[in-house]
Structure formats: C-alpha cells, structure tokens
Design brief:
Layout: H1 3-14, E1 20-25, H2 29-44, E2 48-49, E3 58-63, H3 68-87, E4 92-97, H4 103-112, E5 118-120, H5 128-136, E6 142-144, E7 164-168, E8 170-171, H6 182-186, E9 190-191, H7 194-206, E10 211-215, H8 232-240, E11 247-251, H9 260-268, E12 275-277, H10 285-290, H11 297-310, E13 315-322, H12 329-342, E14 346-351, H13 369-391, E15 398-406, E16 413-418, E17 423-427, E18 436-444, E19 449-453
Parallel strand pairs: 1-2, 1-3, 3-4, 4-5, 5-6, 7-10, 10-11, 12-13, 13-14, 17-19
Antiparallel strand pairs: 8-9, 15-16, 15-18, 16-17, 18-19
The protein binds 5'-deoxyadenosine (5AD) and iron/sulfur cluster (SF4).
C-alpha cells in the first residue's frame, strides 16, 4: 500500500471520530520543522490537535538525540505515558525523530516500553500513515527507521507560528565531528532544489510571514551534493531578491566553510540578519583536531576579523562544548581566551555528552565531572560579563524588532528579536506580536536589551 492509499484509508476510519493528536517536538529547529510536517500529515488524515496529552487519542513525541539528557527526558515522558494508556487503551503512542533513528534505542523502546505502538526515524515522516494504519489494524508494534532518499517535498505542513517560518534547505551532515550523533541519525547531506526553496519562501512571504529561518546542519555546504546548484551565498542573494518585508536568518554555519563570499552576501543582502551563529566548540587546536572540526583557532579568528573589519559591532554567537574527553586546563583556558577575544553576544554551552556510535565515545575520558561542572560555571560567569558589557554598545541606537511574545519578566512589555539577533524588550501590547517595531534602546541587561518604541 502506498502512502496516499494509507492516508485515504485512515481518513475513512477517522471520518466518524475526529481524533485528537498531541505532537511534541524536542531539540533543534530542524526537528521542530519535521514536527510541523508530522502535524500536517495528521491533519490530512483528519485529526484535530490538542496541547493536553491527557485529552489525546494519538500522541507523537518527536525526539532529539544530541545529548544524553535530551534522551533521558523523553524516556521519562514515555514512562509516564503508561498511565495514560491504561486509562485509554485505544490511545496510540508513536516516537519519532533522532532518538528512534538509532536502532539500539528503537529496540530498547520495543522491549521496555510496551505502551509505545510505533517508532519512526528521521527519514520516515512519509511512512507515518502506514505506521498509523498498522496500529489501527491491531499490529502491536511497528517500526520504520530505514533510510530513504526522500525530501518529503510533498508533505503538508502545519506551522507552529503565523509569522516565523523555518525552511529546511538541506538535510543530513557530512562532517562527522567526533562528538556528534547527527550524521548517524540524519544521514548524508541532501540539498533541496533551490527552485523549491525559493517558491516556498515566496509563498510564505505572500502568506504574511515576517521571518524566514533557513535551516541545515551546515548551510555553507548547501548545493555541494547537486550538480549546477547554487551555493549558499547565491541562494541567500536569490531569497533576498524576493519582494516583501521580511528578515532572513539561517543556521548553522560550519566555520571551516564560512567564506568571505558568505560574509559579503550577508552585508550585501538588506534582508539578511546582521548576525552570525558560528559554532566554535573549543578554542584549543588540540581539541578542535580531536573533534575533527578541520579549522584552527587562528583560522576561526580570521573569519571573525574579516566580519569585524566590515562592521566592528557585528553580532556573533557560538556553541561551546565543555569537557570534551581529556580536555586539559590549558585547553579550557584557550576557550576562555577565545571568547574574551571574540566578545560574543551570546554563547550556547554544553557539557560534553557521550553518544554511542560516535568516534569520541571510544575515548577513555580522564576528566572528572566535578571539573567539567566548574569549567562550565566559569565559562558562564565570564560570558555573562562579556554580554552585559557588549550589549551597552546598543544603547541609544534604533533597532528593528520582530515582536514574538509578551515579556515573561516585565508586565506590560513585549519581547522580540532585532535584526542583529538581539533579544529586545519594550513596553507594548500583545497586539504587536507578529509585527516589526522600531525600538530605541535605553538599557542593557545581561539577557536582553530594553528600549522604547519610536
Ligand atoms: N555533547 C555535548 N554537546 C554536543 N553538541 C553536539 N553534540 C554534542 C555532544 N555529544 C552541541 C554542539 C553543537 C550543538 C548543536 O550541540 O555544540 O553545535
Ligand atoms: Fe536536531 Fe541533532 Fe537533536 Fe536531531 S540530534 S533533533 S538534528 S539537535
């Protein structure tokens, strides 16, 4: 049976029920984008949606595998769903995403969590109708974690936001950083056709979307797997040419491929955010080598210097891994030196997590957890001071802000992101959500800048 037939059959089964589905995505924006496709398919099959799992007839947890704590959290949630299944035996529970793309995890779920009805990997979104149909036909456990060469180009999507859209431009990763599970759970790089991406963005802009977030594990290698395809800087320019009032953001950029051409495109494209997330992971050449990052701290700083030679205030953010196996005090000091030199506006730091199947998991690690924790706290303390000091440069400036929520910290305030990627809060009502606002910055905190609308 093909997918379309399965969709039709399920529509028939569901025609007198209108089942409620609860879909929860974990992890990165690519995974959340997959979650929107899962919702799209469920909608096509006749489901409505609920935010309350107790109310649901179908539950799908779309999981992340990047660190162990993400997996532990999901196992905890799956465990707690045993009760729900006892209360409602017809409840269907499916687990998708990066966790279940690992066969040992899929097997663990099959063996130890009988409340789960099906698992599917990151390639198998299109297989959802067939897996659901199995469940409805009384099959005890079905699984599809195989690898397809399938871009899910035709899968419908129910987007989580009406003004911010994620647009994957490529899937998978070829880099094999030694700590990282992604190449094993999302396969090799597959770029979408630029015409498909451009058409999708045009439609989103027509539909009123104000932020277009281009996604890929390494957007800088976009097109390398397709003959005669555009490079990423060319794609950025082509999207910038689309008429409309919107901002283009993108994630993530591998520093080894961050070229002058890319930086020039960011400066040339008036719709491109003036911010770059450039994950460095470590400031130590020895660590970078063992992480298989294929750049040195010096090479990384050359890109930073080129960016800052064009705009000395340009906003940079990064990812840091603390406690990669056998990271020495000197290695860690090199990371501190680097963050002091670059002066990031924000860093996302993670304690190294051992991932079964990766190269780094084979290393015998002699650094104790206590030391790793201390390093993390030091890193965060130093970065807090750098951020607070750095944010002061925005005081007195006007920023365009896409408002995305009411402030969680201040009553009567709204929050949003500026073109520079800064979190901005200012006095205003929820009616501004989804709109651009001009804001003059009046104050700098260590988590955001504060301003007033002009
Ligand atoms: N342990 C800790 N952090 C990791 N990351 C990826 N894999 C691991 C791991 N095994 C971090 C990296 C990456 C970010 C998305 O997650 O910093 O850039
Ligand atoms: Fe995203 Fe990587 Fe987590 Fe998968 S493992 S959800 S690709 S961060």
């Amino acid at each position: 049976m093909n997918n379309n037939d399965a969709v039709l059959e399920i529509r028939n089964i569901f025609s007198d029920r209108e089942p409620k589905a609860y879909v929860r995505s974990f992890g990165c924006q690519l995974n959340c984008s997959d979650g929107e496709k899962i919702k799209g398919l469920l909608g096509e099959m006749g489901c409505t949606f609920t935010d309350d799992e107790k109310d649901a007839d179908i539950i799908i947890l779309n999981t992340c595998a990047v660190r162990e704590n993400a997996e532990d959290r999901v196992f905890g949630i799956i465990g707690s769903m045993k009760k729900l299944k006892e209360l409602k035996p017809s409840l269907i529970i499916g687990i998708s995403g990066c966790m279940t793309a690992q066969s040992h995890i899929a097997e663990k779920i099959r063996k130890s969590y009988p409340q789960v009805d099906f698992v599917m990997g990151t390639y198998a979104i299109n297989a959802l109708p067939k897996l659901l149909l199995d469940c409805l036909n009384g099959v005890k456990f079905s699984a599809d974690i195989s690898e397809y060469d399938d871009f899910s180009e035709t899968v419908p999507q129910i987007r989580d936001s009406s003004f911010k859209a994620s647009v994957p431009i490529m899937f998978g990763c070829n880099n094999f950083c030694t700590y990282c599970i992604v190449p094993y759970v999302r396969g090799r790089e597959r770029s979408r056709r630029s015409q498909d991406i451009i058409s999708e963005v045009k439609q989103l802009v027509r539909d009123g979307y104000k932020e277009i977030m281009l996604l890929g594990q390494n957007v800088n290698s976009y097109g390398n797997d397709r003959e005669c395809e555009m490079s990423f800087p060319q794609l950025l320019r082509a999207i910038n040419d689309i008429e409309g009032d919107f901002i283009i953001r993108f994630m993530s950029s591998h520093p080894k491929d961050a070229s002058k051409e890319l930086i020039d495109a960011i400066f040339d494209c008036e719709k491109a955010a003036k911010h770059l997330h450039l994950p460095v992971q470590s400031g130590s050449d020895e660590m970078l080598k063992r992480m298989n990052r294929r750049y040195t701290a010096e090479k990384y700083l050359e890109i930073v210097d080129y960016i800052r030679s064009r705009d000395s205030d340009f906003s940079l953010t990064t990812d840091i891994i603390v406690g990669f196996p056998n990271e020495s005090d000197e290695d860690f000091e090199a990371t501190l030196d680097l963050i002091k030199r670059v002066k990031y506006d924000n860093i996302y730091s993670f304690i190294y997590s051992k991932r079964t199947g990766t190269k780094a998991a084979e290393i015998d690690d002699h650094t104790d957890e206590e030391t790793k924790g201390q390093r993390m706290r030091r890193l965060l303390d130093i970065q807090r001071d750098i951020s607070t000091e750095g944010y002061k440069r925005f005081i007195g400036r006007k920023m365009r802000v896409l408002v995305d929520d009411v402030s969680k910290k201040r009553e009567g305030y709204v929050s949003g992101k500026s073109d520079e990627g800064m979190s901005v809060e200012f006095e205003g009502s929820s009616s501004l959500i989804g709109q651009f606002a001009e804001v003059e910055i009046t104050d700098a905190m260590n988590w955001a800048v504060i301003g007033k609308m002009v």
